[in-house]
Specification:
By secondary structure, the protein is an alpha+beta fold. The chain has twelve helices and 13 strands. The protein is globular and about 60 Å long.
Length: 370
């Protein structure tokens, strides 16, 4: 019988104070059986993506400890950054890796949320496969209004938190809220553009993402919204399914990016998102200069990208894994902004390099099943 393993990918609202980031991230290592895999801070977004893995009960304990530590060290009343956010630990998704279903993982998400609400007094919402209602499945709905609108949101009957207080007291003013989920493996993937224009980056994001853009009369940006029969804004769908996206400007790089969440890479892969973004950028007189991975990526996603670009070049696929990784990195421009180290970014390689061999008792290629 396979050992049950889940991955936890908390995003904390601190990307600048390295001492705080390390204190929060390494707190998970106090729990036996948990392996910290990655710490990926972003200065402009003022956000850090942390990744750790282990058996469910150990991961839930580690997640609780991390959320508690973040609530102690991060003051949301003073936090600013480019990324949408409403809490010190903004999101905390649980991802089934081995020997456990998404439905079983959702049970652990609910256990974590209830404990966070009762013991830490942090309000929160369950989203995606842990959501208690359809309206709350989408993270964007749960986080709408962000921190600045949180006082009004949690006190409303429509958005009463799934756990924790529904009053914006002094404690909540500091910690903000949290969104906890069970979800499939997600790739956070940014496309680099040769522009500083957020409006143009958003235009490409709207071309590509599944939600597309709102229909308008006349001017596609400033025109009056067209409503559907239910009184909701009608939408023009984007090109790709299982893709969320928006444009932003990243000061530390001096460029605009399209920030994507690829929620099912068996439906839309990195290389397809990249190529479609290139095509849309070209149509708008822009150029994609490369891309950036946030957090970890399955090996299969990199090898699939290599095979895709090799096929486009009419080259043989019969080359070594290491050569394929190089092809993927160069073709996607993953080293455009900073060096890309496969040993630190590909989940199988990170797990293979761990000294805690007892943690893993399954073939590494099982981690590529998404």
């Amino acid at each position: 019988m396979q050992k049950q393993l889940i991955e936890c990918v908390p995003n904390i609202s601190e990307g600048r104070d390295i001492e705080k980031i390390n204190t929060i991230a390494h707190s998970v290592e106090t729990v036996d059986g948990v392996k910290l895999l990655d710490i990926d801070p972003g200065y402009a977004t003022n956000r850090t993506v942390i990744t750790f893995v282990g058996e469910p009960k150990a991961v839930i304990e580690a997640a609780f400890i991390l959320i508690k530590k973040a609530s102690q060290l991060i003051d949301m009343s003073k936090q600013t950054g480019e990324h949408p956010r409403f809490g010190a630990t903004d999101v905390c998704p649980l991802v089934p890796i081995s020997g456990i279903s998404l439905e079983e993982t959702a049970v652990f998400a609910h256990q974590l949320g209830e404990r966070v609400g009762k013991e830490l007094g942090i309000p929160g919402y369950f989203y995606e496969n842990a959501a208690k209602s359809d309206e709350r499945k989408n993270l964007a709905n749960c986080r709408s209004g962000e921190y600045e609108g949180l006082a009004k949101k949690i006190s409303s009957s429509q958005w009463k938190p799934d756990f924790g207080p529904s009053m914006f007291n002094d404690s909540v003013a500091k910690t903000g809220a949290i969104a906890i989920s069970a979800r499939d493996f997600l790739i956070a993937y940014n496309i680099n553009l040769n522009t500083t224009s957020v409006r143009r980056a958003n235009a490409i994001a709207f071309d590509i993402r599944e939600a597309g853009r709102i229909k308008r009369e006349g001017n596609p940006i400033t025109g009056k919204k067209i409503l559907d029969k239910n009184g909701e804004p009608a939408r023009i769908p984007g090109k790709l399914k299982a893709v969320k996206g928006l444009g932003w400007y990243i000061d530390e790089y001096g460029i605009a990016q399209i920030s994507y969440n690829l929620t099912n890479i068996s439906i839309t892969s990195m290389h397809i998102a990249f190529d479609e973004s290139c095509a849309s950028a070209t149509e708008r007189g822009l150029r994609v200069t490369g891309s950036e991975l946030i957090g970890l990526v399955p090996l299969k996603a990199m090898l699939d990208a290599a095979d895709y670009f090799l096929t486009k070049q009419q080259r043989s696929l019969g080359i070594s894994e290491s050569e394929k990784i190089k092809i993927a990195v160069k073709s996607l421009g993953l080293d455009d902004l900073k060096p890309f180290n496969p040993q630190e970014k590909i989940i199988e390689y990170v797990l293979n390099n761990t000294t805690d061999k007892k943690l893993i008792d399954l073939p590494l290629n099982d981690f590529a099943d998404v």
